[in-house]
C-alpha cells in the first residue's frame, strides 16, 4: 500500500465547521478519516454520509461494548452509512465480537476491527481493574481471541504491532493510533511511536490527529507524515 492510503486523519473535534475546514484544507491529499464518538455525537451521521459522498473512506471509531444485539445493530447502521471500518471492544468477549462480525457480512466493504488495550492505558491501569498481566500480555490475549472469531483486524499501539503481526498473518489489518512525528508530543497516549516505526513493524494504517489537524498548514503537515512513511 502506498503511504497516502495508510494515513487516517482523526477528526477529533466537536463541531461540523472545524471538521469541514480540516477536510477542505487537506483536499485530495487525504483519502481516509477517523470519526469518533465526540464528532458523531456533536454533528450526527449526516457528516459521515457527506465524507463518503466525496469519495473519502471513514473509520468509525465507536469502540462498541454493549450486549451483542445492540452491537450488531450499530454495526449494521455503520455499514448502511458506507463506512470502511468500525471498532468493537475486544474486552467484551466472544459474544460481542461475533455479533459484530456477523452483522458486517451484509456489507462487503466493511471491516470490523477489535480494540485490544486503549493506548492511554498502562500496566498500572490494568491492575486497577483486576487484570494482573501486563498491557502487552493482555493485548496478545485479546488479539488471539479477536482473530479466532473472525475480526478483520486490530486497533493497537505502535509498540504492540510487531507481536500482533505474527498473530494476524500478512493480511489482517492493524490500525495504530498514538503516533506522532519525532520530537512531537504523543498527547494522552502512553504507548506511542512514530508513524514510520509503526509501519515498519507491520501496521497497515496509522491514525494521526493533532500533528495534522492543529498544524498551521494541515496539508503540509500531512505531506510530512507521508514523507516519513515513504523514507
Automatic annotation (TrEMBL):
This is Orotidine 5'-phosphate decarboxylase. Keywords: Decarboxylase, Lyase, Pyrimidine biosynthesis. The gene is pyrF. SUPFAM superfamilies: Ribulose-phoshate binding barrel. The active site is at residue 63. NCBIfam families: PRK00230.1, pyrF. Residues 6-225 form the Orotidine 5'-phosphate decarboxylase domain. InterPro entries: Aldolase_TIM, OMPdecase, OMPdecase_bac, OMPdeCOase_dom, RibuloseP-bd_barrel. GO terms for molecular function: orotidine-5'-phosphate decarboxylase activity. Catalyzes the decarboxylation of orotidine 5'-monophosphate (OMP) to uridine 5'-monophosphate (UMP).
Amino acid at each position: 500500500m502506498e503511504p497516502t492510503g495508510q494515513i487516517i486523519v482523526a477528526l477529533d473535534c466537536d463541531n461540523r465547521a472545524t471538521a469541514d475546514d480540516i477536510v477542505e484544507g487537506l483536499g485530495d491529499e487525504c483519502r481516509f478519516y477517523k470519526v469518533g464518538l465526540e464528532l458523531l455525537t456533536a454533528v450526527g451521521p449526516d457528516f459521515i454520509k457527506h465524507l463518503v459522498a466525496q469519495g473519502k473512506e471513514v473509520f468509525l471509531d465507536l469502540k462498541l461494548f454493549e450486549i451483542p444485539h445492540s452491537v450488531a445493530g450499530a454495526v449494521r447502521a455503520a455499514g448502511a452509512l458506507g463506512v470502511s471500518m468500525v471498532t468493537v471492544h475486544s474486552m467484551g468477549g466472544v459474544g460481542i465480537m461475533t455479533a459484530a462480525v456477523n452483522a458486517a457480512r451484509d456489507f462487503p466493504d466493511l471491516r470490523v476491527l477489535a480494540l485490544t488495550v486503549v493506548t492511554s492505558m498502562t500496566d498500572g491501569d490494568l491492575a486497577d481493574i483486576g487484570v494482573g498481566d501486563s498491557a502487552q500480555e493482555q493485548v496478545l490475549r485479546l488479539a488471539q481471541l479477536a482473530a479466532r472469531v473472525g475480526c478483520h483486524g486490530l486497533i493497537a499501539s505502535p509498540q504492540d504491532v510487531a507481536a500482533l503481526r505474527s498473530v494476524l498473518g500478512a493480511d489482517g489489518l492493524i490500525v495504530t493510533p498514538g503516533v506522532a512525528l519525532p520530537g512531537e508530543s504523543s498527547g494522552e497516549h502512553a504507548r506511542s511511536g512514530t508513524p514510520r516505526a509503526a509501519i515498519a513493524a507491520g501496521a497497515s494504517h496509522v491514525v494521526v490527529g493533532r500533528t495534522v489537524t492543529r498544524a498551521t498548514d494541515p496539508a503540509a503537515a500531512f505531506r510530512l507524515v507521508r514523507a516519513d512513511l515513504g523514507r
